[in-house]
Fold HTH LytTR-type domain-containing protein.
Amino acid sequence: MTTAGNDGFAGGADGFAGGADARSRDANGTPGPRTRLARRVAVELFVTAAVGAVFGLLGPFGSFPIPLGERLIVWVLLILAGYFIFRPLGIVARWAATAARVPLFAAELGAALLAAVPMSFVVAASFRRLYGVLGGGNWFAELYPQVLLVGVLMRVLVFVLFERERVEADAPASAAPLPGAAPPVDAAPPLAATPPRSRFLDRLPPGLGRLRALEMEDHYVRAHGAAGSTLVLLRMRDAVAELGADGTQVHRSWWVAKDAVERVERDGRNLRLRLAGGLLVPVSRAQAAEVRAWAEAACRARAAG
C-alpha cells in the first residue's frame, strides 16, 4: 500500500507542458522521459511486490494460519492493490499542495487518511471472503489504523528510495532571488560585460546550440538548446548555481536563459514564457509577478540587442 507522489512522473504535467520531447530517446541515445517513467514504475511495482512478500511471511491481520504459499500470493496482490489506491491520491495531494499553497506533508497525510478507507474495505473483504476472518462488527475501527500505518510506512520508503534527492534539489527554488526582477518596468536593464563561460555549458555535448532552458527530470536536468535537447546527470540546484546570472529559475522544474525569452503569455491564471524555438515554459504562481517583470525586461534587452 503505497503512494509515490507525482514527482514520479518525470516532472509531472509541467514536464510535458512545452511539448518538447515525445521521443523515447534523445539524439545521443539517452532514454527519454517515457522510457524513464516506465522504468520508474516498474521499479516501484517490484519494491511494492517485495514488501507484499514480506507481509506474506509475517502474516499480519490474523492471516498467519493461512498456508505460506497462499498467504504470499494474497499479500502480494493486496499490497499491489494498495499501490494503485494510494499512488493516484498521492499525485493529487502534490498537485493540491502546489495549487492551494499548503504544506506538502499535510496534503500527503490527508491523502493517506483518505486512501486508507477503501483499502481497509479491500483487505477486510478479501480475508472475509476467502477465510472468514475480519468479519466482526468493529473490524473497521481495528483495521483502519493498521492499514493507515502500512500506507504511511510505504510512503516513507518510497520517499527515501526515489524522492529525497529531488526534494532537496527543489528546496532552494522558492528562496533563490530572481536576478533582474528589481528594475522597474520602464527602465532598460543596464548592459553588463560578457560573463565568463559557465561550468554547466562545459557539460553539454557539441552541436546542442545556444542553451535556452533547463527542465528537471528525476535526478537529471534536460538542457534545451537551439539544436535539440540532452540529459545531464545533475541536480537542478547545482545546475542553476553553475549557470549563475545567465537566467533564472521560474518554476521548481524549470530554469530559463534570459536571452531566450520571446514573450510572456497568460492562460487563465497561469503564466507561461514562450522561448525562442517555440518552447513553452510554465511559471510558478508564487513567482508570477517577479518572473513577469524579469521576463519583460529580458524581452526588451533581447529586442534592443
Observations:
- The chain has two domains: 6-172, 200-304.
- The radius of gyration is 24 Å.
- The chain is about 50% helix and 15% strand.
